[in-house]
Task: inverse folding
């Protein structure tokens, strides 16, 4: 199923030739109208985001079938970093339903550029894995679902990710060199430098301590500790990555996770240095200082109806300006907010607009929440006084 259609949400998807070079901010230009004007408070709006395919891949096309990649916010450029797919018959890029491209959406300009493509990896979710020309000179990770397993470090302007689903690339038609590299890939930690536009493979991984599932892993930068935090899909296995030594260490949890983290997504409470998780109505925090979880109030009563979309909704974001957590729902009217420290979530009637089950990020420069899922994008401005 393709998510490329943007009918009804006012999304402009273009194939432009002005893509910025790796590490550079997008070029200045006219932004979409929803970026220029002051959008109504507490109302979800379709974003007129302009998606530009990489100009140096002449027959590039979007592959928008991956629904399992999270996002992060790059403070150096004011971009929401998300994942999607780019295919090219000429170059042999066939990611299938994996993502092989990193995108940057600038909320000030409305531009969405392709920052990086795994252009030295052939094959994808339908097998056919192979190392393309240039791989030895520029080693890079395979196409994959990243889930919640990527995070940004502003001090070094780098992005990290670990684990994820990529094993199908080694299936039917894959060559032996690709299979060997795939095994190395899955025991590594990957770092991307926005300054150089290159990946670095770090030969250390949480698999050193525990054989956890690669699915639905969670990764977060802890600024005070100068470390990356890892939790597995069950919230039962915990490790920290020291950015200075580039080594992982296993850490014992002080309490049990009060909810499932499988399919959950997360945000960072910068005021309290807490990692906040959400799945459906359930939310909790994780404190790396004490290695302990704390349950938050349920956002709503979950009926027994298994078809209720809210059960699988996962979008959550912390808004530091108002010290508030915001979670998304299937429509704008199912938006919920929780003032940190309060005991009850409040409903925001954000409009009848249908939203996507994506991963929102907050941009302090524009005071906007951006919600992006492949090539569908939305904007929201929270005002607690309205």
Result:
């Amino acid at each position: 199923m393709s998510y490329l259609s943007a009918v009804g949400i006012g999304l402009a998807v273009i194939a432009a030739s002005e893509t910025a070079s790796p590490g550079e901010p997008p070029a200045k230009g006219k932004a979409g109208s929803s970026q220029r004007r002051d959008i109504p408070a507490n109302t979800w709006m379709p974003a007129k985001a302009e998606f530009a395919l990489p100009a140096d891949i002449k027959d590039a096309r979007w592959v928008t079938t991956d629904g399992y990649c999270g996002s992060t916010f790059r403070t150096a450029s004011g971009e929401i970093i998300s994942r999607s797919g780019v295919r090219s018959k000429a170059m042999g890029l066939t990611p299938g339903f994996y993502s092989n491209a990193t995108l940057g959406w600038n909320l000030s300009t409305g531009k969405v550029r392709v920052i990086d493509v795994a252009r030295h990896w052939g094959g994808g979710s339908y097998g056919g894995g192979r190392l393309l020309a240039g791989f030895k000179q520029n080693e890079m990770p395979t196409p994959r679902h990243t889930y919640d397993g990527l995070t940004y470090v502003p001090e070094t302007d780098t992005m990290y990710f670990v684990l994820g689903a990529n094993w199908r690339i080694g299936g039917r038609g894959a060559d032996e060199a690709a299979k060997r590299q795939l095994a190395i890939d899955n025991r590594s930690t990957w770092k991307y430098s926005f300054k150089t536009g290159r990946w670095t493979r770090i030969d250390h991984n949480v698999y050193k301590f525990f054989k956890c599932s690669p699915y639905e892993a969670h990764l977060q930068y802890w600024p005070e500790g100068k470390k990356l935090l890892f939790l597995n899909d069950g919230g039962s296995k915990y490790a920290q990555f020291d950015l200075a030594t580039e080594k992982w260490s296993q850490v014992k949890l002080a309490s049990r996770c009060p909810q499932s983290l499988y399919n959950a997504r997360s945000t960072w409470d910068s005021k309290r240095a807490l990692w906040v998780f959400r799945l459906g109505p359930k939310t909790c925090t994780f404190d790396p200082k004490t290695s302990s979880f704390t349950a938050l109030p349920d956002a709503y009563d979950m009926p027994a109806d298994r078809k209720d979309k809210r059960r699988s909704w996962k979008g959550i974001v912390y808004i530091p300006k108002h010290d508030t957590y915001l979670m998304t729902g299937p429509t704008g009217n199912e938006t919920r907010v929780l003032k940190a420290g309060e005991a009850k979530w409040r409903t925001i009637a954000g409009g009848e607009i249908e939203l996507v089950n994506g991963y929102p990020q907050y941009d302090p420069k524009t005071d906007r929440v951006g919600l992006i899922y492949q090539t569908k994008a939305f904007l929201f401005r929270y005002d607690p006084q309205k």
